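Possible regression after last week's pipeline update?

I re-ran a chain I had predicted before the update to compare outputs. Posting the input and the new output here so someone can diff against the archived version. Not blocking, just want to make sure nothing changed silently.
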Amino acid sequence: MNEEIRRRLREAAEAHEPNRARILARVERGAADPNVRHRTPSIARSWPRAAIVGLIAAATLATGGLAAAVAAIGGAPTPPATAPTHTVPSPTVTSAPTPSARTTSTGPAPATTSGSARPTPPAGSRVNDGPLWSEGSLDAHSTIYWAQNNLILKTTKPLTSLTVELRIAQTGDVRSTGNWQTLPSDDFTVTVQESGGALLYRWALKPGRTVPAGQHQFAGQYNHATGVRKVKRDSYHVHAESSGRSVAVWGGFAPPR
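New output (post-update):
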């Protein structure tokens, strides 16, 4: 295309003046006429007037009359409003509860018992002598078929000699099922036998061994006749030596606390 043809086309476009009133009237009649049928929904029917006017402006631009079309409709169509932006609220963050000071990994902390809640020693007992202190009781896990008698010994000084005897009265079918102590087993000679109508457990510290200062426990286990067994006839006796002095304690067994 040479420069001469371009010039003539430009002059023709500038001289063109479309009949704006006629174009608008025809478009409005077509949009308002209910008798007009279409195979598919008309864009002109579904679009707002502003959009139709925009199409007219585009058609006018194609023929070179953009300036005239814009002047006829009073300006360019208003662009659609921007969709509102929805602000998503931030999730509320709550702090984790602080574990209770009374909680352990397996549940509530066990309740503590006062050291003053000790059973009253049976009449005729001697539970304390020099550095040695004692307490006898029936184990809380005892049943109507089986029981365990516990003896607690406390000494404030090392013991160079120690003999412990637990006497379980024969109240019916009393038979030994075992025994144990918190001190090393190799330090003692242990015997269990029937003696004087009772089951006798005896621990004797071996020569050359020493019992350290502290708290120690001795226990005798046994079966018995079915029923709640009374322990009022059971007893213990302890003889020991410390710093060249002989000491002894004895007493009975109290029911479980």
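Follow-up from reviewer: compared with the archived run. The chain has two domains: 3-73, 128-252. Marking as no regression found.
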